[in-house]
Amino acid sequence: MDSAHDGRNRFIRDDDLQVFRSLPVRSPGPAVLREQLRHITRVVRERDATVQVVPFAADAHAALGDSFVIIQWPDETGPEAVYVDGVTFWTVHERGGVIRSYLHAEASLQSQALAPRESLDLARDVIKDLQ
């Protein structure tokens, strides 16, 4: 993992943030995917985290292609910013209209996603299949 991605991973683990993260559709390979899924299941087990998977069978969604993190401090009433990580760029948006667009994308993702328990069961099944 390169240092930029390592820094982003440390950033999204901060206990003071509420984070919604859309992960890329493709993985660099079975071993990497297996380790990513193991990490996700470990984070859910060890922390107060929720993971929901949007199945491949779901329709295309607004977040397809970019990863994003909606940043909201616990004492605030609304999101403060959105960090967007694309294939060739990254940016931080702080304008209300842009933040609302990502909130709508996140709501769309949640409506298409499996329930948290089903998502973890799927992750564990994929880990077993990749052994």
Describe the structure.
- This protein is mainly alpha-helical and 131 residues long.
- Helices cover 44% and strands 11% of the residues.
- The chain contains 4 helices and 3 strands, in the order ααβββαα.
- It has helices spanning 3-12, 30-46, 96-112, 116-129; strands at residues 67-71, 81-85, 90-93.
- Strands 1-2-3 form a 3-stranded antiparallel beta sheet, with helices on one face.
- A hairpin with a 4-residue loop joins strand 2 (81-85) and strand 3.
- Helix 2 packs antiparallel against helix 4.
- The longest helix is centred in the first third of the chain and has 17 residues, at 30-46.
Along the chain, the helix and strand elements come as HHEEEHH
Shape: globular
Note poorly predicted spans.
1-14
Number of beta-strand segments:
3
Short key terms for the protein model shown above:
3-stranded antiparallel beta sheet; 131 residues; 3 strands; mainly alpha
In short:
The protein has 131 residues and is mostly helical. The protein has helices spanning 3-12, 30-46, 96-112, 116-129, and strands spanning 67-71, 81-85, 90-93. It has a 3-stranded antiparallel beta sheet, covered by helices on one side.
What is the topology?
Layout: H1 3-12, H2 30-46, E1 67-71, E2 81-85, E3 90-93, H3 96-112, H4 116-129
Antiparallel strand pairs: 1-2, 2-3
Helix pairs in contact: 2-4
